[in-house]
Amino acid sequence: MSHYQQYFTEKARMAIKDMFVLFSPPWLSSFEKSLLWLGGFKSLMVLRMVDNSIEDLTVEQAKEMDAVKGETRRAEQEL
C-alpha cells in the first residue's frame, strides 16, 4: 500500500507543477497516447476543465481557447 501512497503523492506534486503532463505524459510513445484516447481520454476534456475552472480569461484568451477547441474537435473527428 505504501507504493500506492507514494505514487499518488508524486502525482499530486506533479499536478501542482504542471497539470497537463498528467494528461499527456511526454514519456509515452505516440502509440501509448493513442491508447489513452481510445480508452476514453480525449483532449477536449482538458480544455473543458480549463474553461470551467478559469473565470478571468481575457477576450483574446477566450478566442484562443475557442480556436484550440475547434482544432481539437476536428482532429478528434478525423481519428
TrEMBL record:
Pfam families: DOG1
PROSITE patterns the UniProt entry points to: DOG1
Gene Ontology BP annotations: DNA-templated transcription
Transmembrane segments: none
Domain DOG1: 1-79
Gene Ontology terms, MF aspect: sequence-specific DNA binding
Protein name in UniProt: DOG1 domain-containing protein
